[in-house]
Design brief:
The protein has 70 residues and is an all-alpha fold. It has helices at residues 6-22, 38-41, 46-55. It has one domain (6-55). The protein has 3 helices and no strands. The longest helix has 17 residues, at 6-22. It is elongated and about 55 Å long.
């Protein structure tokens, strides 16, 4: 199928292929359990969110009224 956007998609695809073949960029496989962006893209259990938050160097926010976690 051809539409007005296909030329730009093909150009971007060719650019990515060129960058890969020249070694400027590389692609690495990241398993789902090691993907730190998972909490931003899907629902996870509390433990998985906690692990990902620590890997992203996020800290728990505490309230100024009594010190309880929010």
């Amino acid at each position: 199928m051809h539409n007005g956007k296909s030329r730009y998609i093909r150009r971007r695809h060719n650019t990515v292929i060129q960058l890969l073949s020249s070694g400027i960029i590389t692609l690495d496989y990241v398993s789902s359990s090691d993907n730190v962006s998972n909490p931003l893209t899907k629902g996870l259990v509390r433990e998985a969110v906690g692990r990902s938050s620590k890997r992203m160097c996020l800290q728990r926010r505490t309230s100024h009224h009594g010190g309880n976690s929010i």
